[in-house]
Design a protein that fits this description.
Length: 206
């Protein structure tokens, strides 16, 4: 009896451990979605079309959830933006290997996309977390190669390729770690507190 109970406990623990390593998206509110596996926070996909250079400037200038330091997602964390080091192909790679490719991981692991098909055909419920996601190409953060090509990931077909960095594609910002928006009430309280401090200082000076 004890051995059976121990075996059941082991099965439960194994199942929990296995599930905990799978892709999981958490809605932090304010349009920010945290990927618990990659430890990055996604903003909502932007609806504007931009060149690669403009897209990078746009992403780096964002302040969301009270936090700055945003950027475009990468197709290879290990490559560090090196264009010549081809990113992992998540359409054939294992889940673990695909973790090096943030855009590919979103398509294949988080949203259960299928190669050759639009992400909008996916029946994954997490797709509802990104209502502005387009069935189109998104820029990565890699540096353009000497011939002017920059990596993009296609949410219309699950493919990744290089494209003229001066052409216009969609942008999607990410941030390292778990970005939880500061509630509006906290901002109001902080502003009010600063106002009271300022008034007290003025009265004291008078």
């Amino acid at each position: 009896m004890k051995s059976r109970l121990l075996g059941a406990v082991c099965v439960v623990l194994f199942t929990f451990t296995t599930l905990s390593t799978n892709a999981a998206l958490v809605d932090n509110g304010g349009g920010l979605i945290y990927d618990t596996v990659l430890d990055i926070t996604w903003a909502q996909p932007d609806a504007a079309l931009r060149s690669w250079e403009v897209a990078n400037t746009w992403a780096s200038g964002l302040t969301l959830g009270g936090v700055s330091g945003w950027g475009l997602p990468t197709l290879s964390v290990a490559a560090g933006g090196d264009f010549l080091r081809n990113p992992i192909d998540c359409s054939t790679a294992t889940e673990l290997a695909c973790r090096d490719n943030q855009l590919g991981y979103m398509f294949y692991q988080n949203l259960s996309g299928t190669f050759g098909q639009s992400i909008l055909t996916s029946v994954d419920p997490d797709l509802a977390l990104f209502p502005t996601l387009q069935s189109d190409d998104y820029w990565s953060d890699n540096l353009p190669n000497p011939h002017g090509g920059a990596w993009i990931f296609g949410f219309g077909d699950g493919d990744q390729r290089d494209e003229d960095w001066q052409l216009n594609n969609y942008s999607w910002a990410v941030h390292a770690g778990n970005v939880v928006p500061v509630p509006a009430a906290v901002w109001l309280f902080g502003s009010g507190l600063l106002g009271l401090v300022g008034m007290a200082r003025r009265k004291k000076a008078a």
